[in-house]
Amino acid sequence: MMSEPLVSVIVPAYNAARWIDETLRSVASQTHRNLDVIIVDDGSTDDTARLAQIFVDRDPRFRLVRQENAGVAAARNHGARLARSDLLSFVDADDLWSVDKTADQQRTLLAAGPGVGLCYSWYVMIDAESRIFYREPGRVIEGHVLDKLMVDNFIGNGSAALVRREAFDAARGFEPALRNANAQGCEDILFYARVAEHYAFVVAQDHHIGYRQLPDNMSSDLNRMLRSWLMFVDEMAGRHPDKRRLLAQGLRRYARWLTRRAVHRRRPATLLSVAMRVAVRNPKLAARLLLIEAPGAVREQLAWQRQQQAAADASGIALADRFTPGQRYPIG
């Protein structure tokens, strides 16, 4: 184990008692054994700390620290300050890793050279029972990716990256001001963009992350997510005024995603409030969301339901592997 590079894993956790045991088991099961795991309890009021302490008591690689509730960005930054390694990885307390995530990422990142500051992996979406219901198509986007991130958060979540400490420091860590402005949700994309201002990216080409989707997690508040994206846009536009067209394209894409999500969750009031907020910056886009994108999302959902039924009826057609939709995400 000691010949392997040490990797620090930061686990921010707030009221995650239902999920944290499975998350920490996925970390403990990594084939890359040389880990320094810091669980940051962000002022939880449930059994999160007690369940985390079980891992601390039986595995010397695990540590538990506590702080008053300050949000996911502050918790990640706290863990990074305590980390013993210059390779930092983050996993949210309800997400999962495949057993080879750390091994594949550290090998890919170190082989890429010092000009590459971050390695990410692909993800699947999992439900409350850890069953896969969507598999990200697996795009290979590498090199200098800032322009692409301004248009699309292709990394997709906060549990996907391994980053060099110097890249983390260049990005000034995760931004707690989003939470202070009641605009949580885009801490990940803002951090990735800040890293991309200084370093190239590389991808470890497998679906190493099980990204849990729940009705009450951070990404479920669509109005807050829009406020968060707008803060990301404003920060990037302030330093890159020549890229305003790309940022406008990204806002259009993100607003369409919020529209589809509101339709799929049957939240017409949320859809209307999102459109009204978008209208302040782009009235034409707001009208398009209501008149074109929302009806299209309804048709898209109906087509998806038909496809799911057809797939269920046609057994044996899809290739079966460890990340096949419908099965539980494998953690060891």
General description of the model:
- With about 325 residues, this protein is an alpha/beta fold.
- It folds into 2 domains: about 5-220, Spore Coat Polysaccharide Biosynthesis Protein SpsA, Chain A; about 220-315, no CATH class.
- The chain has 12 helices and 9 strands.
- The protein has helices at about 20-30, 50-60, 70-80, 100-110, 145-150, 165-170, 175-180, 185-195, 220-240, 245-265, 270-280, 285-315; strands at about 5-15, 35-40, 60-65, 85-90, 95, 115-125, 130-135, 160-165, 200-210.
- Helix 10 (about 245-265) runs antiparallel to helix 11.
- The protein starts with 6 loop residues before the first strand and ends in a 19-residue tail after the last helix.
- The model is unreliable at about 315-320 (pLDDT under 50).
Radius of gyration: 20 Å
Structural class: alpha/beta
Overall geometry? globular
CATH superfamily label of the largest domain: Spore Coat Polysaccharide Biosynthesis Protein SpsA, Chain A
Strand content: 15-25%
* Sheet with most strands: 9 strands, mixed
Helix amount: 40-55%
Report the top-level CATH class of the largest domain: Alpha Beta
Total helical elements? 12
Looking at the overall shape, the CATH architecture of the largest domain is: Alpha-Beta Complex
Round the mean pLDDT to the nearest integer and report it.
Answer: 91
In CATH, the topology of the largest domain is named Spore Coat Polysaccharide Biosynthesis Protein SpsA, Chain A
Instruction: List segments where confidence is low: pLDDT < 50 over at least 5 consecutive residues.
Output: 315-319
User: Can you tell me the number of structural domains?
Assistant: 2
